[in-house]
Amino acid sequence: MTPEQTAGFKVMEKRVQSVCSALEELLVAAQKEDCLTMGIYESAKLLNADPDSVVLCVLASDDQEDVGLQIHYTLLQSFCCDSDITILRVAGVQRLRLLLGQREAGPGGVDTGRSPGEDPGDFDCLLVTDPHADHLRLQEVGLYCTESRRHDQWVPELVLGER
Known about the structure:
Elements: H1 3-32, E1 36-38, H2 40-49, E2 56-60, H3 67-82, E3 86-91, H4 93-99, E4 125-128, H5 135-150, E5 157-159
Parallel strand pairs: 2-3, 3-5
Antiparallel strand pairs: 1-4, 2-4
């Protein structure tokens, strides 16, 4: 690897880390302001009722083998593209669970990562519905998605790491 390539890689890595932080802060702010819809079915209902209120769709999955989930994602992506809603795919469901405070102790005190009665798939789709949740962070995430699309990445992807 040339020094120019190494420098470019480090700049890109910092950019991705910054966008991951922006996304995390945006999701937490949206949750606090009750502007976060979680779950595939709840998201579909909101998109059907009021697509103009949605500013960001986050599709989170660590399991690429779940065909049913991939079909839901394809339909949601298509709807979001038709409705001009920014879409972002995220790997790191466990990080989202920790970040958004959805914790539950299971049998033997083992943390299952769910709230009581919560479907384990509730983190598969997250919709941010208020553009005032954290405008600067929303703008940073949106810019990253726009730049990624310019590089032929139809649905931009991020990996949220453990901290």
